[in-house]
Amino acid sequence: xxxxxxxxxxxxxxxxxxxxxxxxxxxxxxxxxxxxxxxxxxxxxxxxxxxxxxxxxxxxxxxxxxxxxxxxxxxxxxxxxxxxxxxxxxxxxxxxxxxxxxxxxxxxxxxxxxxxxxxxxxxxxxxxxxxxxxxxxxxxxxxxxxxxxxxxxxx
Amino acid sequence: xxxxxxxxxxxxxxxxxxxxxxxxxxxxxxxxxxxxxxxxxxxxxxxxxxxxxxxxxxxxxxxxxxxxxxxxxxxxxxxxxxxxxxxxxxxxxxxxxxxxxxxxxxxxxxxxxxxxxxxxxxxxxxxxxxxxxxxxxxxxxxxxxxxxxxxxxxxxxxxxxxxxxxxxxxxxxxxxxxxxxxxxxxxxxxxxxxxxxxxxxxxxxxxxxxxxxxxxxxxxxxxxxxxxxxxxxxxxxxxxxxxxxxxxxxxxxxxxxxxxxxxxxxxxxxxxxxxxxxxxxxxxxxxxxxxxxxxxxxxxxxxxxxxxxxxxxxxxxxxxxxxxxxxxxxxxxxxxxxxxxxxxxxxxxxxxxxxxxxxxxxxxxxxxxxxxxxxxxxxxxxxxxxxxxxxxxxxxxxxxxxxxxxxxxxxxxxxxxxxxxxxxxxxxxxxxxxxxxxxxxxxxxxxxxxxxxxxxxxxxxxxxxxxx
Lengths: 155, 468
Description:
The complex is a heterodimer of chains A (155) and B (468).
Chain A lengths: L1 E5 L5 E2 L14 E5 L2 H14 L4 E5 L6 H14 L2 E5 L11 E7 L9 E8 L5 E8 L4 E5 L6 H7 L1
Parallel strand pairs in A: 1-3, 1-4, 4-5
Antiparallel strand pairs in A: 6-7, 7-8, 8-9
Helix pairs in contact in A: 1-2
Chain B lengths: L7 E7 L2 E7 L1 H5 L8 H7 L4 E4 L2 H15 L6 E4 L3 E4 L11 H14 L7 E2 L3 H10 L2 E2 L5 H5 L11 H9 L5 H6 L2 H8 L1 H11 L16 E10 L2 H22 L1 E12 L4 E12 L2 H13 L7 E13 L11 H17 L4 E6 L9 E5 L18 E8 L9 E4 L2 E14 L15 E8 L4 E6 L6 E6 L2
Parallel strand pairs in B: 1-3, 6-7
Antiparallel strand pairs in B: 1-2, 4-5, 8-11, 9-10, 9-11, 12-13, 14-19, 15-16, 16-17, 17-18, 18-19
């Protein structure tokens, strides 16, 4: 997996934090000086097929041309590309767009709401998921609306 | 660099004490000498200026000088830490005799700002003695006549042997040569007489010339200038084949490669390639050059190509195993390719570190120069994202019920903690000056799960991370 972001960002992903989900030894981090470099790195990595997943953190809207180039690269390398974008700055070229956020729950601290807000080849929907540390996978739990926390999250 | 007028010394830390490593002439006049402790030297000479010595770079410079000295004769070796020894037998007449050669050496080195003491003698020992104790040329033939008046220390003896000889009254080389050999041999062992015989020519001693380090550079000249990318790549491929054969013979791998393209109008351009792993496989290196070579401006054409491995590392021959390493190779190539765009040091990976301090529990290392470490463990949950602590308005040692963070009002739903983490007092860290921290995992009703901490020693609340 490759994680690409711009150099100026103060946030730092913490390998200890996700070590029980994903082994940090398989992660390579690339920092570019602007979005152009980050996109170039992402394209190169998607194309090579050496990594299975490329996560890119973007700060500016993605143009149609850049988006299309990333898609072609991902198709050539058989890899998955994921862009983390600021709200409302999605690209029209994207296959799918998701909105994810944590949800408060009284007896679970891994509950999240994953909502697909754009899908070129399917319908939209929302799922409540939680992480199961023993089986190390995501479990889909009962749909939205049943619990009080879900209403808060949408508010 | 500028010359200093006042006393100047280089200092080196030896056995936990700062000692003078080298002093200039002015400092020597004021009574300083090598090996003196720096504190004493400052007391003797308050206006002493100093810099830390760098013996490794001195050695590198000595090797450069050694290479230069091969202009006088082919046999040049190193003598101790700060000397060269040249076997000029048969080459002195090319410079018009020994005096003329010595004068030329002096003038050339003097122009470069190097002070030298040169001695020429029939034997290596005699030359050493003259260079250290009375610079000049010994008349060929009788070495005892030339060395006789020098102190016994001129025979390259250990300090304790010199002192013992002086106690016996043998102060000069001529005294030692005139003394009975058998008692000396019994008293000091064979090494003393061996040194004496070597200096006087009774025992042979060779100069060991250093081998030239292998040079990893190849070049190619074209009869007609070329300009197409395809042609340049083909030329580079041929050069790479030659270079890789050379690297293979030496069991080395290239870390940095540099192609220089000379144009017909005398201009030249360089394309540098820094590899993520030492490599000598031309089929893997060549595609990595493509991006750099594509940017070259050919102008009226390129007529010389030069390829040099500017940085090499040992790469021993390895047993080929049945376990496929293809994916790892691909990742290395990807790192190289990304590195040519954003710089190899900007491609990083995480290595585990042994610390409870959250921001020091991992190390960020350049992926090209490190191997991935495993044994990651976190006994307590840690946030996915860390950021520099951001203060929030709250009081008390319990997490606040309501607070604002990044201009968003948040309500605490559940707080887990505290987990106390003490600063590592053995490391200087400004952000931990506020003392111990009590960390709380705060799950807000709005959804966000934050990592807050309270500093009881200087009360305040901060947000440092966010859980998924």
